Every structure is written in structure tokens, then in C-alpha cells.
Amino acid sequence: MKRIYLPLTFAAITVFGVAALRSSVEPPSSGDDWAEYLGGPDRSHYSTLTQIDTSNVSQLKMVWQYHTLDSGQVQCNPIVKNGVLYGMTATTQPFAIDAATGEKRWTWQDTTGLKGSVRSQSTSRGVVYWESGSDRRILFTRGSWLYAIDATTGKPVLSFGEQGRTSLKAGLGPTAADKFVISNTPGTVYGDLIIMPMRLSEGADAALGNIQAFNIRTGQLTWVFHTIPHPGEFGYDTWPKDTYKNTDVGAANNWSGMAIDRQRGIVFVPTGSAAFDFYGGNRLGQNLFANCLLALEAKTGKRLWHFQFVHHDILDRDAPAPPNLLTVTHNGKKIDAVAQATKQGYIFLFDRVTGKPLFPINEVPVPASDVEGEKAWPTQPIPTKPAPYARQTFSETDVNPLATNRQELVESLRRSRNEGPFTPLSKRGTIIYPGLDGGAEYGGAGVDPDGIMYLNSNEMAWLISLDKKMSNDQLAQLSPGQRVYTTTCASCHGAERKGNPASGFPSLVDIHKRRSRAYVDNIVSTGKGMMPAFAGLSNMQKQALLAFLFGEEKQEVGMTNSSESRKAAETQPKASYQISGYSKFLDKNGYPAMKQPWGTLNAINLNTGEYVWKTVLGNYPELNTKEPTGSESYGGPVVTAGGLVIIAGTKDTMLRVFARKTGKLLWQTKLPAASFATPCTYSVNGKQYIALACGGTKLGAPKGDSYVAFALP
């Protein structure tokens, strides 16, 4: 074992001069307004409001419900400014309502008339509010565009970019032209700049994951940071030569959002894995700056320091949420810190200025890959404190004792590779635990001024295998539509199109009985929910795919071994391996294959690294268990000075409020639909409200279309 404090670059810090600004400036918290994503630039989810507290929370009543008339999954954390609530619908259309009454102020419609203005089926976690004097703007993304509209009217700011929008592909280079590029998460503001997250394909067709800053007034690209370095840049030698040219490796993008210390001018950017996510034989090396926390100079994009959470990631271990900025006490000294929660169940805590870990981090040996051409990195960093908030091992004794097919699950476990949280994928199957959705997820963690972190965690194993893709000769034997399906859709929806609903991938069998061709065509072109758009498919390929899905393809399988078929096969993505599918490890009834609890809520003292409390979060009421079962959760908590932790996020459609000090459940209520989003809390005319989006859909929950608010009578 080797202790690490690398890789960091302190020379850049000295040049920047931030050491002189080490005064313990408390980051702003949410008060009457909830004016930024997750409550403020520190992403602390914290509110100073106290009207609703532990003594009266049980009296909460729903005071308004706003129907967007646009049902489906909503992950939006609404923001509130000057008594107006701004949110996003299921198909990424922003709106403004009165935060006290829920009455509509305006709803946005795309009136640019520009090419590419298609109906979006993606998800959005919210919008950005910016003002300068009387100029008040809302910035949001839709498709591959960043839009600016007037916060008062919802009308486009025509001086911004091209008639009110600018391309998220501006700083990604020519290879991004026909690739999938969107943003689910609101950007981060520094002065007149907005620094943007991006969601990309996770396959061989991924665009580059550069970090980009745009001018909010003009829409012009201001600076770019290369997460896959160019020649002469730090980290270039951690990839094969010329990887930055983006021929078959991309991503290393920030999709989960950022936090910013505006006093020091530092933006903290967690990055995800390089693509293809599960095989790195074509990108051997440490792969900086994938899977890192980057500290960048917000004005210029200059790197100040970085830390890599996963070296040469081959398990899709993206940093899943924005980091938290907080102040802790270590060795009797106040230290401004940055904390990052991970899918693996770890919390990494650093000095915000120097990047020095505040608890030791060990480089621990991890299993080698048995896949031809792959070289898993021999060690991975694991912090000594805090202890993981998700279980790290899955043995036969952990198999759900109530599962009616328990022995079958045990045998499946025995056949698979299962050597801990960094076990590489294998042809025989690998248990990934914590699963691909964590541990932590996009909702992230809340932090209070005492340095206590509040974090919901999933307890779900996944079982995935990795094998070689079909050869071009094999692909050429398939019909055109089946060929496109096999290379584009089968990893999620399965070779037989049966999908995996429990993992969020619907069956496509008999899709013609449920959806029109036009609907499916739009989904393939623009994406939906967490499904990416397949912009790289030609119109001929899309039409062949639709014919295959709708049972209209007349060309028989095995009759297409022509030079044209071979040429078409050779145009498919270049990754030489593919996964069996995004499959959770479930019993035959669709419940987690492991013993309970299946989800927890944790309070962790980051001054000491010790747990304050841990409790079960979520329930499967149909199982009629004596104690709650716990469940997966998406969306994070809100923490208040009134002593509350407020959280939804579970399929059982409940909003729950816990005591901040003890973890005791104080109140819960059923929502109109499940909320897979972080709530907000704010005050209008002296009255405190709690509001959240209820879109359902995820985890198979029924659809909803509303935002709701609660307050005291």
C-alpha cells in the first residue's frame, strides 16, 4: 500500500496567488430565495430558513400544485428568485410560476425557427438565473444548444448567440459535428461566464468532453479546458498518442455539475469516464483527466490542481454529483474544503486551495482484467475516512434470504467474477457492487454549517458481462435494420428486444402496438430520458431500424452478404467489445438480489470522518415487511437551519422529513407521483415553502406532470 497526495500541481496555485485568499469565507447559503442549483454555488443544499422546524413539520399541507401538461421523468431542482419559481418540464421546456400560489407566469416555446429545433425528450435538472442591473436572464439547455431568455417574459434574448441560443459543440472540435451532445445539468456562473456540463454518448462514438465557458451576454465561447489533453499539455502521456483526435475514444466529460468558490475564483469540476466505458484496450494508461476532480481558474480555465478518483476507468465510475464546498475543523484549524461523493460509496475530502487530502488516501491493489487487450490499472485510491456509505462486498451470505429463487441467485454469483468494488468486467459476468447507479447518484449530498454531510445511497448490485462484438462479416449477414439494432440498441434493450424494465430499459417487442413510427423516429433522433440521441445514424440507417422494429423489413436475415452490406457494417462504431446489457442483479420478482436494506440515508461528520447516524430510506410497501426495506433513490436532500433533512427520490412516491440531529423520521406524505429530483425551500412574504417536481417514470413508477408545494397552515 502506498499513501498518495498526487497528482497535484502546486506551482499553478502559487502563480494564481489563491493562497493569499485563504480567509475562511462562508459560502452563501439559501435564504428567502433558492436562487441557484442545489441552493447555492457551494451546492450545499442548505437553507437558513427556520419557520418549518422539528416541532411543527407534521402540520405541513400541500398548498398548490402546478400541472405542466407534459408528463414524464423530471429531475429538476427548481430555483426561486424574487417570489418566482423557475422549472423545467419533462421535455425540457422552461416555465415560470408564482412561488406562493403556483399560478403560471409564462411558459417557453421554441420560436427560433432555426435548423435543429426539434422536440427534445431528454431530462433536465434545472435552469440558471443571471442578472446584471435590469437585465435578468434564464439560461437552459435543449438538445445541443444553450439558450438565454428573459426571466420576466420567457422571450428569447436575441443578442445571445444565434437568435437566442449558442451551440454546446462550439469548443469540441470538428469531430463533434454529428455526435450526441446535450446537457442535463445547469451550468455554473462566474461573473459574465457560464461554465457548462455536457452529457455525451458512452460508446465509441462519443464526442470530446472538453469543459467550456460561454459569455452570458453574447453567447460566445470564452475558454476551453481539454479533458483529453493535446500534445504539450499536462496529462497527454497518460493516453495513447493522438487520443485527443477523437477517432475512437472520447468523453471524460463533466455531466453531473460543478461547484464554485467565487471569492477565490475557483470552479470545481468532477469528470466522468472515457468512452467506451467498459473496455479501455484502445486507451491504455492512467487517462487524465477522466474520473477526476479538477480545480480550475474560473476566469480562464487554467488547471490549478486535480485528483483522479479512478485510474483507467473500465467500470463507468463517473463522479455522479457536484462536489460540496464547506468549512471543517481539522487539528484545531478551520479549513475551507471540497468534498466529492462517488458511486463507489467513498467520500474524498480536500483542502480547497491546495488539493491536499484531509484524510489519508491509500492506493490499494485491485484485480486484473482477463479480457484480451485490456490492462486494468493495478491500484485504485480509497480514502481511510469516512468509511464507505455503501456496502463494498457481496458474498453468498448477502443474497436475499427471502428470494424464492435464492439458490439460483447463489449459483449465478458463483459463476461470476466477484472480487470487490473494482472487479473488471469479464466474459463470464461480473458483479458490480456498488452498482452503476451507486452509492451516490445525481442528487448529491447536503452539507450544514457544522460540517455534517447528508447523503442518500443505493444498495443495488449489477451483473454484466463483456464480450467481443460481432465481426464485420457477421454483421454483414444481418438485415440492414437488425444490423443497426445489434450495434446501437441491443446493449440496453437486449438481443431479443425484451428490454430490462427493472433497470430502466423498456421492451421493444410489439412496439408498433404502443407507439407510432413518428414517435419512435423522434426518440432515436433526439433521445428520451437517459437514452441518448443517435445523431450519427444516417436517414437510411434510421429507416432500416424502424422497419426492423415495426416488423416491416422484407429482406431476410442471412441474404445480405454483399459489398454494400459489408461497407455498411464497417461504418458501425469501432469499439471491439460490448456489454451484455445494463442489468441489475435481481430476483425473479424484480427485487434486489441482496438482503436489505436496499437504500440508506447517512449523516457523516466531515470534521472527524465519523458517522452521526444512518437510517433506512424508502420502502416496497407491497412486501409487507415489519421494517422499511429501503430502496434505490434519485435526487438529493435539502437541509435546513430548522433542524430538518427533506428528501423524496424513491419509487414509493413519498416525501419524507427526518430530524437533522438524530435521523428520526418526523413526517411523510404521498406525492401525486414519485419525485426523482431534489426539492427546494424558500420564503415568500414571510411564509416558508417546500417545493419539488413529481414526474414519476423512473424505476417503472407511474408518470406525473406536476410541481407541488407544501407549507404550514
Low-pLDDT windows of residues: 1-27, 556-562, 564-573
CATH superfamily of one domain: Cytochrome c-like domain
Main beta sheet, described? 5 strands, mixed
Mean pLDDT: 90
Q: What would you call the quaternary organization?
A: single chain
Gyration radius (Cα, Å) is 24 Å
Number of strands: 43
Question: What's the arrangement of strands in the largest beta sheet?
Answer: 2-37-38-39-40
CATH architecture of one domain: Orthogonal Bundle
Cα end-to-end separation:
58 Å
Principal-axes geometry comes out as globular
The number of helical segments is 8
Structural class: mainly beta
Percent of residues in beta strands? 25-35%
What is the CATH first-level class name of one domain? Mainly Alpha
User: How helical, in percent, are the residues?
Assistant: under 10%
Find the CATH topology of one domain: Cytochrome Bc1 Complex, Chain D, domain 2
